[in-house]
Write a structure and sequence with these properties.
Elements lengths: L17 E7 L8 H11 E10 L18 H8 L12 H8 L2 E5 L7 H6 L8 E5 L1
Parallel strand pairs: 1-2
Antiparallel strand pairs: 2-4, 3-4
Length: about 130
């Protein structure tokens, strides 16, 4: 159903192409998330905005990954899904900043009505990174 199927670590787009990028629950699947973030930064226009949601454990200061865990049931137990390669901690926002993004950490669940939180499938207390180039 996609118009373009591409590797997020090697996007087939020119630099500074997009005004807005919405990357929803993708980066936790990508082994080299730094390269993916660099590509998102590269193709975002100056002044452009990106929303890069990921599942996140805000009780963790530091992102956790362990490639030695290969059993799918164990991976699902630890990472939330068998195909996730990490559990992001609070350091996720600083990782985006290290790429060059200006990041606003936004908790819309405390700003909108509870029925809208449910309608938009937001997790209570979820911090959404709103990123600018």
């Amino acid at each position: 159903m996609a118009d373009v199927k591409a590797d997020i670590c090697n996007l087939p787009f020119e630099d500074n192409t997009y005004d807005i990028i919405f990357c929803n629950h993708v980066l936790e699947h990508i082994p080299d998330d730094t390269k993916a973030m660099q590509e998102l930064y590269r193709v975002l226009k100056q002044g452009g905005m990106g929303v890069f949601q990921i599942p996140q454990d805000l009780s963790r200061a530091v992102t956790f990954s362990d490639d030695t865990i290969v059993d799918q049931k164990e991976r699902a137990k630890i990472f939330g899904q068998y195909d996730h390669v990490r559990v992001y901690g609070r350091d996720y926002f600083d990782k985006l900043r290290s790429i060059g993004f200006k990041v606003i950490e936004e908790d819309y669940t405390n700003k909108i009505a509870p029925e809208l939180v449910e309608k938009y499938c937001l997790a209570k207390g979820e911090i959404i990174p709103i990123c600018f180039k």
